[in-house]
Amino acid sequence: MSRWFNTAGPCNPADHYMLPPEERLPSVRDLIDRKAYFVLHAPRQIGKTTSLLTLAQALTREGRHVAVLVSAEVGAPFPDDPGAAELALLAEWRRFAAWQLPAELQPPPFPDAPAGQRIAAALGAWSQAAPRPLVLFVDEIDALRDMTLVSALRQIRSGYASRPHGFPHALALIGLRDVRDYKVASGGSDRLGTSSPFNIKVESLTLRNFTRDEVAALYAQHTADTGQIFQPDAVNRAFELTQGQPWLVNALARQLVEVIVTDRALPITAADVERAKEILIERQDTHLDSLVDRLREPRIRAVIEPMLAGTGLPSIPADDLRFTVDLGLVRMTAEGGLDVANPIYREIIVRELAFPVRASLPQIKATWLTDDGRLDADRLLDAFVSFWRQHGELLLGAPPTTRSRLTSWSWPSFTAS
């Protein structure tokens, strides 16, 4: 079966068109060599999981490390019960290791430990038993909240000094937010506001979008497999609409080759890309629906609404502005100003913010049309007279220039068709 453009979950080079992930994270290997603990934060479906899973597999295959990507998502239902969250996490991490590592590199049985110490005990035992330095990538870390999140971060910080033999050689926390924006109910704030529980981080990285040339290279893989060509103006328009956001790049292409132009002998044109854009906006798949959900957050609206209205930003915390950029909703332009991340997001945001206004507008029935949609001149004149009786006084109170145009207006002659 031929490969396809993936819009759900991590990419697999055997099944999906994809670019080499490490090219977008050139500094990660250096951080691993330095035994660093770091953060990778970027918007959803931009390639974080794919990039780090691919890197982990490469590191293990090269024979220098035991590298695994695990997920913290299963701990999310237990924000105030660290003990229950730890049991769920460690069972899930063992399952992740089972399909990523060969038998000789599997983790040992995790030792019994009190609640609040199980993660540190498990990582310590795993690091000591591993025949090579252990590298751990913890995905979806910001799914954890409150006591459970703070407990996990403090356990990792506590074990940091005993690396690389008594704790992971290198470790990355992966999520939507940087550490300071992790959700935690403490001290009257809903965010950490500081990296204190994880002040061992060396660096906070993010994952950039595709360049125009990378979009062309991705689409060229489809051409190589099927012979179907993306015309240069189609590639340009796809990049213009998406600004290289990976999910949008793949979603446009998927609509193009699976829905709009299914005949592989026909090329993809810029007009086809426009049609695909409209389909995406109307469908509002999960990725775009989560974008809309973000607009309900007051600190996000405080940034977005003035931008769309063309007014200056109010006095807002720098963290809120940085958070909106980190989520991929807005971007810094080359001139140093803010703009919505891409034209597709802009159209969706405008539609969503304008929806309550549009929904409250009265429905106007065209009484001057016949049942088959043709113009009835008598009905039109009756409707205009009714309108004039209701609003004419206001119109005649308009400035002189406008009023003179109104009073000198003559009735047109209509011929009913």
Task: Walk me through this protein's architecture.
With 417 residues, this protein is an alpha/beta fold. It folds into four domains: 21-205, Rossmann fold (3-Layer(aba) Sandwich), CATH 3.40.50.300; 212-283, Helicase, Ruva Protein, domain 3; 288-360, no CATH class; 363-417, no CATH class. The protein is 47% helix and 10% strand. The chain contains 15 helices and nine strands. The protein has helices spanning 28-33, 48-62, 82-100, 118-129, 146-159, 212-226, 232-242, 246-260, 270-283, 286-294, 298-309, 318-326, 343-360, 377-396, 400-407, and strands at residues 37-41, 66-71, 134-139, 170-175, 183-186, 189-191, 201-205, 330-332, 338-340. It has a five-stranded parallel β-sheet. A two-stranded antiparallel ribbon has the order 5-6. Strands 8-9 form a two-stranded antiparallel sheet. The relative contact order is 0.09.
